Amino acid sequence: MVCTGNIIRSAMAEAMLRVHLDGRPLDATVRSAGTLAWDGAAHRSAVEVLRERGVDLTGHASQPLTTALVADADLVLPMARTHLWGVLAHDPDADARTFLLPELVRLGRSVGARVPGEPVRGWAARLAAARPNGRVGGRSEDEIADPLGEPFAVFRATAARLDDVTAQIAELVAPL
């Protein structure tokens, strides 16, 4: 998961995807990072909104996006197109496994869920091949808006959207 500072959106998405993958047939490591170096814990409103959902974000520490993180990831899920371009600046070949979250869900519904035993990178390549005109970057409505500086209700709405989309991603990448 990738966002700007790795203190709100990508941190929440990381924690929620981890919860949704629990008990599913996939041994996955879920990580998050920010395109800008940031030093600190998750934003207090992100911690609180996830606490309301029964998810603990108190131990989260922001980390910067690195070439090694991108290279190691089977899927890279940025929150916005600017983050996607930041990912590709680290590894131009990551385009076949980098998707905005709703874009991944849309393509996954079109192509089908990952087949048991299929490598995640192989499934991602099938999704990338299904992109309209091979265009990387999804649609503007695929972006997850940054709630920083917004009222707490916006953090709740962001968490609800991330919860929904990460649940769908878990179903597609690790069907029961």
How would you sum up this structure, described in words?
By secondary structure, the protein is mostly helical. Helices cover 46% and strands 2% of the residues. It has a two-stranded parallel sheet with strand order 1-2. The mean pLDDT is 96.
The count of β-strands is 2
Instruction: Tell me roughly what share of residues is in helical segments.
Output: 40-55%
- Strand order in the largest sheet: 1-2
User: How big a fraction of the residues is strand?
Assistant: under 5%
First-last Cα distance: 23 Å
SS content category: mainly alpha
pLDDT averaged over residues: 96
Give the low-pLDDT segments: none
SSE arrangement:
Elements: E1 2-3, H1 9-21, E2 33-34, H2 44-52, H3 67-72, H4 81-90, H5 101-111, H6 120-129, H7 152-173
Parallel strand pairs: 1-2
Helix pairs in contact: 1-7, 2-7, 5-7
Quick synopsis:
The protein has 7 helices and 2 strands; from the N terminus they run βαβαααααα. It has helices spanning 9-21, 44-52, 67-72, 81-90, 101-111, 120-129, 152-173; strands at 2-3, 33-34. The radius of gyration is 15 Å and the shape is globular.
